[in-house]
Amino acid sequence: MGYVFATSACICCRRVFSYNPHKVPSTRAFSQGGQREPVCRSCFDLINAKRQEQGLEPFELQPDAYEPLPEEEL
Question: Would you kindly state where each structural domain of the chain is located, as residue ranges?
Fold first, then answer.
């Protein structure tokens, strides 16, 4: 049994990070052409903190969003 993970730069802070490509949070907010781009855990936490300050519900984080994906789930 093997594992797979994706790596790319966070659309918000541009730091490279690894993630489960099926579960990582993503946004079109800063994307060129409207393509969804992944958001790192630090930026995800900051976004949710800002939402809570504004009285909004935080976004839900999928389990294992920043963990490797079992290869049989590809």
Answer: 3-73
